[in-house]
Design brief:
The complex is a heterodimer of chains A (531) and B (317).
Chain A: E1 9-10, H1 22-30, H2 35-49, H3 55-79, H4 86-93, H5 96-137, H6 140-149, H7 152-172, H8 174-201, H9 204-211, H10 221-231, H11 241-247, H12 249-255, H13 271-300, H14 303-314, H15 327-335, H16 338-372, H17 391-410, H18 412-416, H19 420-440, H20 442-447, E2 454-455, E3 458-459, H21 460-481, H22 490-516
Antiparallel strand pairs in A: 2-3
Helix pairs in contact in A: 1-13, 2-12, 2-13, 2-14, 3-11, 3-12, 3-13, 3-21, 4-5, 4-19, 5-6, 5-7, 5-15, 5-16, 5-17, 5-19, 5-22, 7-8, 7-16, 7-17, 8-13, 8-15, 8-16, 9-15, 10-14, 15-16, 16-17, 19-21
Chain B: E1 3-9, H1 16-28, E2 33-36, E3 44-51, E4 54-59, E5 62-66, H2 68-80, E6 84-88, H3 90-98, H4 100-126, E7 132-134, H5 145-149, E8 154-156, E9 160-163, E10 169-173, H6 189-203, E11 209-213, E12 224-226, E13 243-245, H7 249-258, E14 262-265, E15 273-277, E16 280-284, E17 295-302, E18 312-316
Parallel strand pairs in B: 1-2, 2-7, 3-6, 7-8, 10-11, 11-14, 14-16
Antiparallel strand pairs in B: 1-17, 3-4, 4-5, 9-10, 12-13, 15-16, 17-18
Classes of the chains: A mainly alpha (531), B alpha/beta (317).
Chain lengths: 531, 317
């Protein structure tokens, strides 16, 4: 008879807490994935450009790949349960120079996507909200507001307001920040529930009927839009596996948010369980949600119709809808209900909003970690005496985000930049460092919480990071081959390589500066030998 | 220019690996003074129960069957992580499980054995010239005091003040304000205030004084830790972890009033940072003992001054 495993007897010692509830942990990570951005981008670019690509299956592929990546990040954050993300893992696992450069590129990438989200608040969140109200009520004032919000300067200004608001809530402390986060999470979930309600309770007949007032030149706009798109070159297929795989890069991007808790790893109790359920659970649920929304949209809106409206919009065809066919707009037309429209759009706005404080906090934690190691200006680590928050790091994140927001909104060059490849390559290198960690840092690995644990005969950090590396390699390859999602445009690559080189340069400059002040920064990373 | 380099680490929680690193840190960081903060006792006992020719145990959520070199390796890993491995027969384990007094006696023995071993390591590596200034924390049982008070390598600075080189002095106070865990060395804020007053009377002038106080000042920025609820359950919210200050108001008032040159604090593992309260530089290096790295702070005093941006360097060795 197998005997029970013995208990560990705990002393009367401080810090021994019970783990947060599974729901709390899940909400924590789920709040870092933007369901709204995932649905918006996947449905805006997917149907028209990946003929035969199934959004539902693609979402599951993306979730599967991201689960592999998430598993690699999970084992990293359990092994080194400190805040600072990629920078901390690689600077300790490989070299401080590589760690700094990758951490710098990583932070820049996410600040760039922070700027994208800030612009999307207006163009894909608030503007569609007013456009949907116009489509449902016919009131031209709503149309005017929507058109104004789509102007680059206005979008940048709105984004700036949101970024500043998020920065202020991060500065003045956790309680106010938490209140806002919980409120937005409620709004986001309510909006998603309303969206699913619409997809379940309205169908193509409703959509066809509701379209007629907005397409006065068409007697049967639903069918005519599809026919017009096909005659203009749209290809529709039943199911194509390769196109589905290609399409999966779109839901993959927002799913990365599920692993962002690595930036605050040092603040999470029971890291193994907390990060495990949080990272992997949130990715799995979000992937399933993306898939469900995708399949429901095929039932209620129609795959061919979604492909047609987005195709016509891309080519600025005369038969296109009077508004950008964001998914929120399509659901608004589908339901024809002002109240549901308002709730659905508010939900999308909330989901887009979530990325912004999450990205600001990510960049701020990286700066803090670098400041502690004295490879960033010490001011970044300064804690405000009144609020006890790192106001300098938060402010720098806010300012950089605002600059990037205006550049993204108002310049063609920045609109064409794609950083997702850079981010995935950074994570791929991190995964490779993780594969060899038990051999490059044997003592640290053995003494870590998972030290000694094996999976498939190898140290678990090796196996899971190999899985992560495999998934990321596929994603990088797909992105490289896809000019719409990323491609290998020279502007982007010059910018990415330039950012990486800037990171290396900054590191060496900082090290030299500190050395002249009598501070040897390399000691921050060196393991003290005990023999 | 006269420079004094102080290396401070705290909250080792029984980690043998971190203690060995601490002892090696003097040479590694070329420190003049080593200060060890409290909470050096580990958090738990890991029983290894005899099972035929081997043993069975439990670690990181997994039951284990161990024998031979695997057994030695496991015990080393447990010691390095700050826990106390103990080999028991099935009957001894059952007795330990059911009898609290037996458990307490074993715990006390194991804690003492570990500390005596540490004292021996420190003496062999650093000599007998009072190299480590030490003050206990709230997790440190009272019975450990006698081990350190007359030791040649350690200088016991709990509720006392000592001379350092270059005209500096170091004063210490161990224990903490109340925590949810009812640990061995907790005091009400009133008692802490009284103890700090007694310490202040001993010190007299606080010029060139370094204070090693286990609990950080309340709401100082280096005393924030993740919040827990009344059931000791961690709190989490969407995208963030709520934190709250848990330091001592008595310590905050003490620092504000007396303004020592430097304050060295521990207790809050997540509170890593360096802040200034008035003219006092307050440092908490945090603790990462659980991952096998020694979190420490190297503070350089130049011309009797400390620039918090330049002269405080954090390491995770």
């Amino acid at each position: 008879m197998k005997k029970e495993a013995p208990s560990i007897f705990l002393r009367q010692a401080s810090g021994l807490v019970k783990s947060a509830g599974t729901l709390d942990v899940f909400i924590f990570n789920f709040g870092l994935i933007s369901i709204g951005i995932g649905v918006l981008y996947t449905h805006l670019y997917g149907p028209a450009n990946y003929p035969g690509g199934d959004i539902g299956v693609a979402s599951l592929f993306a979730a599967f790949a991201m689960l592999g990546v998430g598993a690699g990040m999970w084992v990293w954050t359990v092994t080194i349960p400190r805040s600072g993300g990629i920078y901390v893992f690689v600077s300790r696992g490989a070299s401080p120079t590589l760690g700094f450069a990758l951490g710098f590129v990583d932070a820049c990438c996410w600040l760039f996507y922070n700027a994208v989200a800030a612009v999307l608040i207006s163009t894909a969140g608030i503007a569609p909200f007013f456009m949907s109200l116009y489509l449902n009520t016919g009131n031209e004032k709503f149309l005017a507001i929507a058109e104004t919000l789509n102007k680059p300067v206005v979008a940048a200004a709105c984004g700036t307001v949101v970024i500043v608001f998020c920065g202020i809530t991060l500065v003045v402390g956790m309680r106010r920040f938490f209140f806002v986060q919980k409120l937005m999470f409620f709004v986001a979930c309510l909006g998603t529930a309303a969206m699913i309600y619409c997809l379940l309770n309205y169908d193509r007949a409703d959509l066809a009927a509701n379209l007629k007032p907005f397409m006065p030149g068409m007697t049967e706009p639903y069918d005519q839009i599809i026919a017009e798109a096909k005659s203009a070159g749209l290809t529709t297929e039943r199911f194509d596996l390769w196109q589905t795989v290609r399409l999966s890069v779109w839901p993959f991007l927002p799913l990365i948010g599920g692993a962002f808790s690595i930036a605050i790893g040092g603040e999470i109790r029971d890291v193994r369980r907390g990060q495990g359920y949080g990272i992997l659970g949130s990715i799995a649920i979000a992937g399933i949600l993306f898939a469900a929304i995708g399949w429901l949209s095929y039932y209620s809106i129609g795959a061919d119709f979604q492909a047609a409206v987005t195709f016509l919009n891309q080519s600025e065809n005369a038969a296109r809808l009077p508004a950008t066919p964001y998914f929120s707009t399509l659901v608004a037309v589908l339901s024809g209900n002002v109240v549901l429209t308002a709730i659905v759009c508010a939900g999308f706005i909330a989901w887009i909003y979530f990325w912004i404080p999450g990205m600001l906090a990510y960049a701020e934690r990286v700066m803090l970690a670098m400041a502690f190691d004295r490879v960033a200006p010490s001011a970044f680590g300064r804690v405000n005496e009144r609020f006890h928050t790192p106001t300098v790091a938060i402010s720098v994140s806010v300012v950089l985000s605002i600059v990037l927001t205006w550049l993204y909104a108002c310049t063609e060059f920045f609109k064409t930049l794609i950083f997702i490849e850079a981010a995935t390559i950074v994570w791929l290198i991190t995964a490779i460092v993780g594969i060899v960690y038990p051999w490059t840092r044997p003592t640290l690995w053995q003494t870590s919480e998972l030290g000694g644990r094996k999976l498939l005969g190898l140290p678990i950090i090796t196996t899971l990071n190999a899985l992560s590396a495999a998934a990321l390699t596929v994603v990088v390859a797909l992105l490289w081959m896809d000019p719409l999602a990323a491609g290998h445009d020279s502007n982007s690559w010059i910018t990415i390589i330039g950012t990486f080189m800037l990171g290396i340069t900054l590191f060496y400059c900082m090290r030299l500066y500190r050395r002249r002040k009598g501070v040897e920064v390399s000691q921050a990373y060196q393991e003290i030998p005990i023999e | 220019m006269a420079e004094t380099r102080i290396y401070f680490a705290t909250d080792l929680h029984g980690s043998e690996l971190c203690f060995r690193k601490f002892v090696a840190s003097k040479a590694f960081y070329k420190a003049d003074v080593l200060v060890l903060g409290g909470d050096i006792c580990g958090k738990g006992i890991v029983p290894l129960i005899q099972n035929g020719s081997g043993y069975r145990s439990f670690w990181a959520g997994k039951p284990l069957e161990l024998s031979g070199s695997g057994l030695d390796e496991f015990e080393k890993r447990v010691r390095y992580a700050g826990f106390y491995p103990v080999r028991r027969t099935e009957d001894e384990y059952n007795l330990m499980s059911s009898d609290e007094q037996v458990r307490n006696d074993i715990e006390q023995r194991l804690v003492k054995e570990r500390l005596l071993e540490w004292l021996s390591i420190a003496e062999s590596k650093l000599g007998c010239d009072g190299s480590i200034y030490f003050c206990p924390g709230n997790d440190d049982d009272l019975f450990i005091d006698e081990l350190f008070q007359d030791h040649r390598t350690f200088v016991w600075i709990n509720s006392s003040v000592c001379e350092l080189s270059n005209g500096f002095r170091i004063a210490g106070l161990g224990g903490s304000n109340p925590t949810p865990w009812d640990t061995p060395r907790e005091f009400s804020e009133e008692i802490l205030r009284s103890k700090l007053q007694t310490l202040a009377d001993q010190v007299g002038s606080f010029e060139k004084v370094i204070c090693s106080i286990h609990t950080p000042p309340f709401s100082s920025g280096i005393d924030e830790c993740p919040e827990i609820d009344e059931n000791l359950k961690a709190k989490m919210g969407p995208g963030m972890v709520p934190k709250k200050p848990v330091g001592s108001t008595a310590v905050a008032a003490f620092i504000q009033e007396h303004q020592p040159l430097l304050g060295l604090f521990g207790h809050v593992h997540e509170g890593r940072g360096a802040v200034t309260l008035g003219n006092t530089v307050c440092v908490n290096p945090g603790s990462t003992y659980a991952e096998g790295t020694l979190s420490g702070a190297l503070v350089t005093i130049r011309r009797d001054r400390i620039n918090v941006q330049r002269d405080v360097q954090f390491h995770c060795g």
